Amino acid sequence: QQQVKQSPQSLIVQKGGISIINCAYENTAFDYFPWYQQFPGKGPALLIAIRPDVSEKKEGRFTISFNKSAKQFSLHIMDSQPGDSATYFCAARGSGGFKTIFGAGTRLFVKA
Amino acid sequence: DAGVIQSPRHEVTEMGQEVTLRCKPISGHDYLFWYRQTMMRGLELLIYFNNNVPIDDSGMPEDRFSAKMPNASFSTLKIQPSEPRDSAVYFCASSGETASLPRGYTFGSGTRLTVV
Predict the structure, then answer these.
(1) Tens-digit pLDDT profile for residues A61-84
(2) Whether B43 and A49 lie within 8 Å, measured CB to CB
C-alpha cells in the first residue's frame, strides 16, 4: 500500500519561531505533493504544493523543501503566529490517476 | 462560487438505520472524492468519481457503503445499515485538476456522523 509518513504528530512552537513538519513517501509514482491546513470543524484547505522537479517552493511565510532522492519533503512555517495553530497534512498524488494519499497529520500549536 | 457544499453538517442515528450524506461539488470540477476522517485512521479515501463515473472504490470499507453521482452537481454516500464504528467525519472534495495541471482539492466542511 502506498504510504506517506508524517512527523511529528504534534508540535508546540513559540510565536515568531519556525515550525517544521516532515514527510516521507515510499512510492516514486507520485507527481504532486500538496500540504493542507485544517482548522477545527472545517475541511482541509490547500495551503501550498510542489511538483517533484522543483526542490523548493515559497509562498509568503510557508516554504516546501523537496528532496527527490531521499523521497522526503517538509513544510517550514517562518515567523509562526497563533493563527497558524491548526492541523497540517502532507499529501501525495499518484501519477497514474488522481488519488491523493494523506499523511497522518501534525497538530501545531503556536504559543503567544 | 459557494465551494463544496455538504449536508447535513451533523447526523446522529441509531445503529441499523440508513444514512445518506450529500455533496454538491464546485461547478466545472470533473473529480469528486469522498474521504472519511477519524482519529485512529486519519483521512481515508473511500471512493472517487471522474465525470460522474466511479473510478476507484477500493477504499469503501464494505458492502454497507455505496456512493452515487447521478449528475455533475450531486453525489451521495449511503451507509446501510449503519454501525457505531462508522462514526466519523465524512468529507467530500472536488477538483478540476488535470494530469499536467494539478490544483489540489477543495473540501467541503464535512458531515459529522455519530451512530449510537
Answers:
(1) 999 999 999 999 999 999 999 999
(2) no
